[in-house]
Amino acid sequence: MKKVLIAGVTGAMGQKAVSLVNSMDNFEVSAGLAPHLTAENKMDYQLGPAVKTYQHLDEIENGIADIWIDFTLPNAVYSDVKFAIDHGMKPIVGTTGLTDDQQAELVQLSREKHVGGLIAPNFGMSAVLLMKFAQEAAKYFPDVEIIEMHHGDKKDAPSGTALSTAKMIDQVRKPHETNPEETESLAGARGGDYHGIKIHAVRLPGYIAHEQVLFGGDGEALTIRQDSFDRQSFMNGVKVALKKVDQLSELVIGLENIL
Amino acid sequence: MKKVLIAGVTGAMGQKAVSLVNSMDNFEVSAGLAPHLTAENKMDYQLGPAVKTYQHLDEIENGIADIWIDFTLPNAVYSDVKFAIDHGMKPIVGTTGLTDDQQAELVQLSREKHVGGLIAPNFGMSAVLLMKFAQEAAKYFPDVEIIEMHHGDKKDAPSGTALSTAKMIDQVRKPHETNPEETESLAGARGGDYHGIKIHAVRLPGYIAHEQVLFGGDGEALTIRQDSFDRQSFMNGVKVALKKVDQLSELVIGLENIL
Amino acid sequence: MKKVLIAGVTGAMGQKAVSLVNSMDNFEVSAGLAPHLTAENKMDYQLGPAVKTYQHLDEIENGIADIWIDFTLPNAVYSDVKFAIDHGMKPIVGTTGLTDDQQAELVQLSREKHVGGLIAPNFGMSAVLLMKFAQEAAKYFPDVEIIEMHHGDKKDAPSGTALSTAKMIDQVRKPHETNPEETESLAGARGGDYHGIKIHAVRLPGYIAHEQVLFGGDGEALTIRQDSFDRQSFMNGVKVALKKVDQLSELVIGLENIL
Amino acid sequence: MKKVLIAGVTGAMGQKAVSLVNSMDNFEVSAGLAPHLTAENKMDYQLGPAVKTYQHLDEIENGIADIWIDFTLPNAVYSDVKFAIDHGMKPIVGTTGLTDDQQAELVQLSREKHVGGLIAPNFGMSAVLLMKFAQEAAKYFPDVEIIEMHHGDKKDAPSGTALSTAKMIDQVRKPHETNPEETESLAGARGGDYHGIKIHAVRLPGYIAHEQVLFGGDGEALTIRQDSFDRQSFMNGVKVALKKVDQLSELVIGLENIL
């Protein structure tokens, strides 16, 4: 039985993580960490009698968990992950906010301590598989465009996932030229351009978070699409990470790199 | 039996029109018009022994046809349609190139002569129905974006059909504001803007001519999509026009206006 | 200012209806009806000080409302709507469970009393527009198939909306024959058959409620798709009904019939 | 410069292969084989002065080609491929009709002779990538259904590609149960069933050859779609095979196995 500590256990994602771990054979929640978590209120957060509760890192006992799931806040995640590695707990981290330097330092630490783990900006399996497949398809179909669709309240365009997809495609795609004679009678009609990869962003109420990658070749087309209807989908990726983390010998960045 | 003269009968679209009329009950090709068409080569163009052949307007005999199908060239279409109306033949016109003034004049002439007919920039039924439905849906869903997808060789963006769709939507849509806080980290990501309606143009090899209109509302979405795989699709609209032209009392612009 | 009574006000749909009416100019909630609703707990249901509360039909005062919104239960809806019509309140009914005989009787009553209103099995605008457009497109594209996609827990197939769509298409479609030489190497691959219209039902977790109608013709295709992400979408249709109910002179069945 | 013999060079696919090879650097057509091909008519088939022409296998000279592209007929393919391997030419075979026993025998022969090559029932890159990605995704999303869409004249359902996709998914998918309480009010609505994987076949005029694989998980969906608009698409796969065949040490079955 693998023991799991959940940091940020009282938050929405932390609670989903509790439900996930409780539903899996061979895993159990052994401890929760959150600023206002107490032995008295822990049952409000689906935590059973045997689960330890902590409010601060320095209260955490040695050996309390094998795995550290982190859905906390940008200002807490660095100390959390460092603590976990230092104490031999394998971190599975969905919290954003680590700088590139912090990530590099934590990876280095994980190598020194021989502790595997995963930091993933996106735990949605459909988004991660889309990016992975798009990168592979781009080797054979250099002509590619991206359409992402989000709810009307999203302010920035394109989405981070769409941009990440373009970057992954750009790493493998042969040098590629768009039609030099192309003209726009409405500026922007051909979309945003990332190294020759066009990205189109749709914003409409009702929509949640969706992305399509469209490839075209002589006489054929290939389209990969993912739809995120609910943040519950992140737990699909956390589940995969829980099952694979034992095979990792250091901290890995990106769910796609453990698939 | 309705008699049909086909102008531009030796061209690709003219030939499709011959096949169409030959396949319909109650219609027959009575005459063909084309610069190099002769009694000797007419059988190369699916024209039977009884079909009259003309190279110039002034050769055409009175009463030779009830209906005039026109798939010619921009420089011929005005004289053709005028000739048809003057001689009581109902024009069904797929040739582009008429100016707004010429169209208005021909409509006026058709009223005076009591001759019905149809000028349609697009005879593809799926494109025409898409525009019609999009206009109707926009009354209930003011939040709408357009994505059109064409082969990589298409130079201009957005497509004429996408722009026509936006214009039709704009006629009925309530005043509408896009999210004022919206920002683009890649210029053009949010597409071209026609009176607040975003239009996105995708250009990829393999693709032919496709358009989607996406509507979003609280908790739901409606999408209308049309695919033109082949110009053969234009004959679907010509067929509808042939059946309806007798009910028209003047020259109508746009297939959607006779549906 | 139009006054609205909401029957079933404490339920999930009733509560959405309160939010809707509160957000609209020229409409106000004047009364709520629900078995456990009291003057004391009404503020828990977004009902202000001036809103009347009723637990039973016989408590309802004359003149308390112009419009009656009903999201109750199958066993209550008949008495509710009869009561509303008898007392001159225009019913807008989303509750299911009326028999065909009961519907016919209520329509007859509405004519006698000159009270307009609407009973709609589906208030989702995207679903209703899809059905309306599908019926219209089928006049020009007799070749049509339906694919509906729902969450994995849905037990019956095809969905009621898909079947309704097929029925509406069947009313207008010309007699039509499927390919008589067609064979299935896996039974059911060609879907269910409603009067020659094939219906395919997909059941997958993650999906919510989605329907596509696919039309094909020579060289082209037309697809109409709707996605219901959330029951909130029903309020889009209720809003349309609230604005149009004054123009109705009798009880109408189906939101599509007032668009 | 790699020399290529094209068997079936006068057929539609053979001719596309000529165009492809002519367009590639480092490859040239050195010979053509076809029953009625002669030195006199070879220019009608895009074959230049230096290209050898053969009507029968026994005329073919040693060393005339490094690679043998085969788009012939079911009754010719076995002898063709055997001949190619025996004479040290690497076969790239798009002709169907080999029995399982013949395939196994040819693979065995290729090992003995140390001749690499490829036999592919489908050279469409989009179809092959769809199958490959679908198999990979099924490891993470065991809930999956397939929809294939073809022109109305296709007699059998489901398509061979859809069935192949299901078989590839079935190889990796964990044991999986469909909802046992599921019922069909129209028989066939839930599609054909291949080991618990539902397959739906749409047949409509206008459509060409399209396939979608739909995956669903908690709160998310992943869809992979391919469209074959034209058999020209097969040349995308032949091109990949031409570039990779030198790295193969035996005859491989299936384009996906060399990607």
Automatic annotation (TrEMBL), chains A, B, C, D:
InterPro entries in alphabetical order: DapB_C, DapB_N, DapB_N_CS, DHDPR_bac, NAD(P)-bd_dom_sf
Positions annotated to bind NAD(+): 8-13, 40, 94-96, 120-123
Chief location of this protein within or outside the cell: cytoplasm
Gene Ontology CC, one term: cytosol
GO MF term (any one): oxidoreductase activity, acting on CH or CH2 groups, NAD or NADP as acceptor
Top-level taxonomic group: Bacteria
Keywords: Amino-acid biosynthesis, Cytoplasm, Diaminopimelate biosynthesis, Lysine biosynthesis, NAD, NADP, Oxidoreductase
GO BP terms in the entry: diaminopimelate biosynthetic process; lysine biosynthetic process via diaminopimelate
Localization terms from the record: Cytoplasm
Pathway, per record: Amino-acid biosynthesis; L-lysine biosynthesis via DAP pathway; (S)-tetrahydrodipicolinate from L-aspartate: step 4/4
One Pfam family matching this protein: DapB_N
Annotated signal peptide: none
Reaction(s) catalysed by this chain's protein: (S)-2,3,4,5-tetrahydrodipicolinate + NADP(+) + H2O = (2S,4S)-4-hydroxy-2,3,4,5-tetrahydrodipicolinate + NADPH + H(+); (S)-2,3,4,5-tetrahydrodipicolinate + NAD(+) + H2O = (2S,4S)-4-hydroxy-2,3,4,5-tetrahydrodipicolinate + NADH + H(+)
EC number: 1.17.1.8
Keyword Oxidoreductase found: yes
Family, as annotated: Belongs to the DapB family.
Subunit structure: Homotetramer.
PANTHER family named among the record's database cross-references: 4-HYDROXY-TETRAHYDRODIPICOLINATE REDUCTASE 1, CHLOROPLASTIC-RELATED, DIHYDRODIPICOLINATE REDUCTASE
Official protein name in the record: 4-hydroxy-tetrahydrodipicolinate reductase
Protein source organism: Limosilactobacillus rudii
Classification of source organism: Bacteria, Bacillati, Bacillota, Bacilli, Lactobacillales
Underlying gene: dapB
